[in-house]
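Q: Okay, next protein. This is FAD assembly factor SdhE from Azonexus hydrophilus. I've checked the sequence twice, so it should be correct. Can you predict the 3D structure?
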Amino acid sequence: MERQDYERLRWRCIRRALLELDITLTRFLDDGFDQLTEDEQAAFVDLVALEDHDLWYLISGKEECNEDEARFVPVVEKLRKCSVRLAN
């Protein structure tokens, strides 16, 4: 991913209505994004485009990915681990 695209994605991670998402997404982007496969990176970009509450319900485990969101599962699992580390 080019630097300009990364910075644009980082801005989308920071500018969230829910502080929990802001922190989780930004830290994950900074610490784990480069370890994702290209498909996982694409899924992360699409996840960031979801509405805050829908995304938070996925990350917090209140909801699971449906069939249409199956490609999100590996990234959501990694985000959940990141979110748990933040809570501890």
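A: Here is a summary of the prediction. The two ends are 31 Å apart (CA to CA). Residues 73-87 form the longest helix (15 residues).
Q: Noted. On to the next one.
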